[in-house]
Design goal:
With about 300 residues, the chain is mainly α. It is built from eleven helices and two strands.
Length: about 300
């Protein structure tokens, strides 16, 4: 595997690590199967792409695309939570409805299916002294560290404990004075905000935005979460957040190695197959490990 392929794998690893943290918040913390992320990722990309294409604000405007994408994704998460909490729509169906609506919204924002940004100024130029192939890795690793520290700290605070209680046992959390509805609103908003932020960072690094960028993002996020948990077996929330990034980086490295190994015979068109295979392997591994442990105990007894 060449250095360019390795740098690209690390870029996507840090990027999808941020997505994985958002997926972890909804799936693990809130026990909420949220498919909105397939729409919020291209939503963040659309917001960033339109602002960068217009040249508004120059270098300062390029940085402003990130909080704007975060807010836009948060509103998408709020919408899903509103449909679920206010009208009692099943969480999975509520997220699908929001995801479908976001496809049209993203087209409206962009005005066309895709936007090219080859000659536009992005935040990648923050590190002009770094070789070009490593600039994306540098930027995304810094944001990954920032998201890790902020998420791990927040989930350790009193408000974060309320979030975790809401997903673990809503009735008990309500009895203890935690507003389950409010936590769900803010939790899904934060989750989709992080995913939209990752979408905006994708645009800055790759210099294009496309309305179909969200296809399969939920699977990639779940693959990172499940793979990381299978490897680290987290018992603390900080380790769980670390597992999101570890799983995302290892997943992208394995994919890059498989696609660039001629003797394996894989092509870019096999990406979905490899993703499904790795997710299935990560799901099966704990059960196989448990059966082997029980078998060894019986043999020793």
């Amino acid at each position: 595997m060449s250095m360019i392929a390795l740098a690209g794998a690390l870029e996507l690893g840090f990027l999808y690590g941020i997505v994985a943290v958002g997926v972890y918040l909804s799936f693990r913390i809130f026990n909420f199967p949220d498919l909105t992320v397939d729409g919020s990722f291209p939503l963040g990309a659309a917001v960033a792409g339109v602002i960068l294409a217009s040249g508004w604000g120059g270098f300062v405007g390029a940085w402003l695309t990130l909080p704007l994408a975060l807010v836009a994704g948060g509103l998408a998460g709020f919408t899903t939570a509103w449909l679920n909490q206010r009208f009692g729509i099943l969480h999975l169906l509520a997220s699908i409805l929001t995801m479908m609506a976001l496809y049209s919204i993203n087209l409206r924002i962009m005005g066309k299916p895709n936007i090219g940004l080859l000659r536009r100024q992005t935040i990648v130029e923050t590190f002009p002294a770094v070789p070009s192939i490593y600039q994306g890795v540098m930027v995304l690793s810094c944001f990954a560290l920032l998201v890790f520290v902020a998420t791990a700290y927040f989930l350790s605070t009193q408000q974060g404990l309320g979030f975790r209680a809401t997903g673990s046992n809503p009735r008990m959390a309500q009895a203890m004075g935690v507003s389950v509805r409010r936590c769900t609103y803010w939790g899904l908003g934060l989750s989709n905000g992080l995913v939209a932020l990752a979408g905006a960072l994708f645009v800055h690094v790759n210099r294009f935005a496309d309305v179909t960028l969200g296809f399969g993002v939920i699977i990639l996020g779940l693959a990172a979460v499940i793979s990381g948990e299978s490897l680290l077996r987290p018992r603390h929330v900080v380790v769980a957040v670390v597992a999101c990034f570890v799983g995302a980086i290892l997943y992208r490295l394995v994919i890059a190695w498989a696609l660039h190994s001629d003797f394996l015979g894989f092509h870019a068109s096999d990406l979905n197959f490899l993703t499904a295979f790795l997710v299935a392997l990560a799901l099966i591994a704990p059960r196989v490990r448990l059966r082997l442990r029980l078998f060894s105990r019986r043999g020793s007894g």
